[in-house]
Amino acid sequence: MKTASAQYKGPLYLYNLNKIGCQYAKLRDYLPPNFQILYTLKANSNLTICHKLAQLGCGADISSTGELQAALKTGFSASEIVFTGPGKTNSELAVAIEMGIGIIVLESANEARRLHGLAKKYGKKQDVLIRINPLYRKSQSCEIREKASSCGNSDPNSVQPSLKSQTIVSISSKFGVDEDKAIEEIAVIDSLENLNLKGIHIFTESNVLDYNQLLDSWTNTIDIANRINDQGYHISLLDFGGGIGIPYNAVDTEFDMESFGQELPRIFDNNPYPYHCIVEMGRYMVGEAGCYMTEVVDIKESLGQKFIILDGGVHQLLRLSMKPASKYMEVLGKNGDYTQKATLGGKLPTPLDIMVEDVMVPEDIEIGDRLVIYNCGAYGFNHSLTNFALHNYPAEVAYSDGKMEIIREPGNIEDFFLNQKLPFATNLENEFKEHSAISNQQSAVNF
Ligand SMILES: Cc1ncc(COP(=O)(O)O)c(C=O)c1O
């Protein structure tokens, strides 16, 4: 961390590729052999990270043609790619078929009909899953924890007792088809000869630390699949999506993968139908492997509240529903107690740009200090408001086996102008080009 801070100026993401290797190894070691592990590119589609996960042996979960290209570029094999997500257009589906990707997860009977037409045109029979919105689910995502977890592993010494997850009625969803309509939709898919329905996809939980919650949820998925088989539709593949959580404080323990792995075979015991299974992991795979580093540029007070203004903001790290996650941070080089309450604000000219409120910072924090926000390797770089106010993209740096390398240069101002034209201002076109050249030189000096 210190070396990176000394070596690279400007805001940046720093990733530890070795940590990604450890996370993958835990999944591989503890999941049963009938489980295939996919990496969900939407968590972080940096090419170095994708390449690392492809090398480790993962398949890929992609949700766009861009992610498909990133996956293919970095060594995932097409047959081990699963295309998930709503709103797939005909041209995206056609590219997927042409590339020979393994499985397409259908979101509706309409999507099935469109895909069928395309598969027929290409003379292919495409393997598909149907995504189902279950009638009941476990209570949704865990809250972001600031101290001992309310929904993490049950720790007898924990200050707060662990909450039991509850079964709740599912809400309407733009994802997939409702469980009570699934058989109708499956009948449609089954009648389309260029589609091969292999199974179902159900993903309702996110950032779960209590493995029992996932076991309950996956058991529900198995029950749903069994009922579909009972009705004569032969399905053999279950895609459980993602959902394994990571701690966002210094107190919570990690998801107990070992116990999860020991308990998991139990939910398949004596099941009347054999299943192959898929998991699509994002947060668990890369979340803890990344941190965001930036500098304090101003310190001020307003109506008694202390503001730390950073050379960063929500254009580089936006976690709308997870703001408190950014309390898991450190001011480098300050060893004193964190006794001052402050709000971390970014540099964007909008009140939206508050990274976190009521975070404790050291008494002697000062302008120029570097601040590190932990555990933002997943849904960090890829989830931010990159175009707001035209501040550059942050750099990305990776550490692996004792070596540190830059894996994405900081953005150029020029990037924001890409694909734009000035057809109504011919004279401006030339000035525009000159200014772009100057500002690019400036940003290179800054880094
Ligand atoms: C379809 C699908 N699969 C997998 C994931 C990854 O989930 P997680 O990051 O919880 O592992 C997501 C995340 O949004 C998703 O939409």
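^ pyridoxal-5'-phosphate complex. The mean pLDDT is 90. Residues 140 and 204 are 7 Å apart (CA to CA).
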